[in-house]
Fold this sequence. Notes:
The chain is 41% helix and 28% strand. By secondary structure, it is of the alpha+beta class.
Amino acid sequence: MPVYKIGFCLVLICLCFSVSSCRHFTDEGAADACVDSFSQHYFNWQYEACMPYVTPLSKRWLEYAASQVHEEDVKALRAMPSAAKYEVLSLQYGKNDEQMIAKVEVYDFLVMDTLGMAAHQLERAVYVLNLKLRDKRWLVELHQLPQRVK
C-alpha cells in the first residue's frame, strides 16, 4: 500500500476520534448549562421557571413543590439577604451517553425538607441531579424532589 494511502487513513481515523470527542464536549456544555439554569431557579424557589429544564414527567415534582409553599416560607424567602448561590461540582456520564449525573453544591439558601414544617436556612449542601438526553436536549430528570447528599 502506498505511503500516501496510509497517511490518509491515519488522518481519517484521527478525524473520526476528534469529531466524536467534540460531541461529548458540546454535550457536556449543554448539560452544564441545563444544570446551571435549573439550579438557579430551583434553589431560589422559582419552580415555574424550572419547567423548561426538566423532562415532562418531572414537572409534577415541581408542581408538588410549589403546592407546599406557605405564607411563612414566602416571608422567609423575602427576608433572605441574597439569592441562593450554587456551583456545579461535577458532571459525568451515567450508564450510557444519554444520561448524566451532576453534583451541585448550594450555599446560603432556604430549604423545605420536612412537610408541614417551616422552611429553614442552610449554609451549605450538596445535591445530585440526574440528566437525560431528550430530543437532542439535556434535561433534569426528577423521580422525587432533589435530596441532599449525606
